[in-house]
Automatic annotation (TrEMBL):
GO biological process, one term: bacterial-type flagellum assembly
Name of the protein described by the UniProt record: Flagellar hook-associated protein 1
Record carries keyword Flavoprotein: no
Record Pfam families: Flg_bb_rod, Flg_bbr_C, FlgK_D1
Record organism: Inconstantimicrobium porci
Keyword annotations: Bacterial flagellum, Cell projection, Cilium, Flagellum, Secreted
All residue ranges annotated as the Flagellar basal-body/hook protein C-terminal domain in the record: 562-600
Amino acid sequence: MAGLFSTFNVAKSGMSAQQQVINTTSHNISNAATEGYSRQRAVLKTNAPQTTTGGVAGQIGTGVQVAAIERIRDTFLDYQVRNENSIYEQYTTREKFLSEIEGIFNEPSDSGLSTQLGTFFDAWQELSKQPQSSNARTVVAQQALALTDLINSSYNKLQNLRNNAQDLMLSSVKNINSILSELDDYNRQIVSVTASGNTPNDLMDKRDMLLDELSGKFNITVEKGLYNGVTVKPVDTNGMVTPELIQADLTSTQARFSYVSGIEQDPSDPSGNTYKITYYKCGQTDNEQSKQTLTVTGLTPDKLNDLKTNRILWADLDGTATRADGFPIRNGDTIPASELMIFKPTTGEVAGNSSIQADIDTYIDGINKIAKTLAFAVNSIHSGMQNPIDEKGTPGYDGMPFFVNADVAIYDKNMNMTNIYDILNSESGINGGNLTVNKEIIADVMKIKTRTTDFNYLTADQNTVDGEGDGSRALAIAKLRNTLILVQDVGINITNRNELFTRGGSTFSNSYMTIENNISGMTLDSYFKNMTNTLGVQSKKAQDMVASQKNVLDALNQRRDSESGVSLDEEMANLIQYQHSYTANAKVISTVDELLDVVVNGLKR
């Protein structure tokens, strides 16, 4: 039967429970500004009641106890935040790089490529009016040099930007693997603490922060397991049978990622579809021992492009590349392309980086097409169609190209070309990085061909047929400004100045000075403006998506903070309530003490 001592124990349990509740409130207040902290709450439940005997009905309560200290967390909000965060980081990455590409093109402006193209053709227009003027010829040469310098600069900057994107990809691989290692460590601690009967709230907060960070790299799925463990894997498994990055049961295998640093075509395969792949385990490029090589056969252009823009391979915990079933591929092995597992997420920083590399490649290709088209078109009018010549033979009328491949052209001390055969045959290799003006023409601008039959002579000074005032050929080059050329096919179906017209559908006439318009083509300026217009649309879309996703994320984070965050006003109100409860329990004990004094000492009197 309950007595005063039983009442004493009830009050004692109340004081003990309120003390733990106050401790939890104090912990909340202390971490009000801690990033990632989730508000905690002590869950109280009554002690097992005492069953009465002797005809007294009912049970007598025995007090209260703290059943658990739980954190307030909405897992659905976590899912929403991580999903939107993945999309946000994808477009943040794209917006950053697209903005840099816009800075490289610098359009519209007085110093952009469009303006330089116009200035270049204007110089030829003026030269056609006074072809005998060395000043007008010098202006043409210098404007052409300024144009090629700008094309070279744009090309090199785009290449550097692509290298920066690849460096960011490497950094992402290292960061992802580091996050996964930390996640695995926290996961193990959480499972261990939970199995011992405790609730590791603070450890779970740290794990959730890492999951939030990981979601910015790529979209993830998080599945709960026993003892508060979690299994983490990407949403985009890319055909992997074992895509788990973190395992709830702590015993199964876990996947990681490695970085491809080198992709080289194997010259021993005549099909051209075999490549030597070099990768570093877990992206540890500073450790040569982690360097691995593979030979991959049957690598199609599409998969090769995927590999070049993604450069991330599925790997085991050690960083060794694996097949779809998680079985490791040994260093030096030869495998078919179907067994090479490339990680290709559709959202997140990694996806944004991959897509921007593809975009940069597109703009580099566009610059290359402009450079090649400019070289093919100007050279064909300046010197005529390119005829095959014997290496030891004497060059014919195509012996004075206006534009040359800077990687090949060699000159003597007097700036005369010494390897004309190689120069002419390297014209197909001209790109945005090596396009330049023939130094022989820069040194002697009188070698610029401006007259009707200049194409029949190795150098213009050999022409004794046309008068000095003949500027017909210079005018023909100036008219290229408005000529419709199949620029989009240059470098694909059109690989030299001859094919620009035979395959491009254009035709020559009037002593190689008139190029007929191709109705399927476009002008050089229009082609470049199409590039910049596309860039503008892409950049605007990325900016809009970043702004939109930020608003969505801010709203979700506010909802999550209202659910899991600490409100100091609420905690202070609770603290007062718990203080009064503690005081009341203390008063019960004081009252019991007085009653016991009556029982023990009062009865004696």
